[in-house]
Amino acid sequence: MIASWLVDCGLFSQARASLQYFGNHRRPDGSINVGTNYQGVDTPSQGRYVLYYEIVKTELDGTQPEPKPLKLKTVRIMSIAGVGTGSGSDLRFEVFVYRQKALECDLGNKVNCMVGLHHRENCVVVEVLNSPVLCDDVKIKFFSSSLDVPKGYDDCAFYFWFHTSFVEDCRLYLPRHQLDNPHKPKTWKVFGENFGVELIFTDVPNSMIPNGYG
């Protein structure tokens, strides 16, 4: 990714400055130039990985981070009112590790999960059952059976990528602008300003990393 290269070669020391520069100079056909109709890094997940690279370069002296195997314990979906049924019963999600589906949770049918709707906090809390070991790159895709929830890129309601080595204190919180698809203004009639996803993990020993990871 060019934005990462701009950090690597020293033109920018911070990922945010590199992303802003790249966004101002990228043409729709992918070439770099100056003008008005340009687009930068397209998704929040892409930007997240540029930030990861900044950490590798500035804090880890360019070395690969140590593996951090985790298990997914809890998923909290914030500001759920107005999203589909408003209870999470229309949602399911898939967890991918190294681009292979490792887990599917169906909130409506309570497959691989227990679900609680908290009206006062306006959130759905999903206790994940049978989580596989997650290590390195992880993708989570959320689908809705409701016709009122828009499908975006990747034919899903929303999704995101993250790397387990950069998860701090077994928690990852992603507000609306850091979720792929809901970050686009055209979806904001469904995904309100306070919409977000929080993931809670448990640590597992490195000995539980399956062969072939890393």
TrEMBL record:
CC annotations in GO: cytosol
Report the superkingdom from the record. Eukaryota
Task: Note the InterPro entries from the entry.
Answer: C2_domain_sf (IPR035892), Dual-spec_lipid-protein_phosph (IPR051281), Prot-tyrosine_phosphatase-like (IPR029021), Tensin_C2-dom (IPR014020)
- PROSITE patterns, alphabetized: C2_TENSIN (PS51182)
Among the GO molecular function terms of this UniProt record, one is: phosphatidylinositol-3,4,5-trisphosphate 3-phosphatase activity
Q: Which residues are in the C2 tensin-type domain?
A: 67-204
UniProt name for this protein: Phosphatidylinositol 3,4,5-trisphosphate 3-phosphatase TPTE2-like
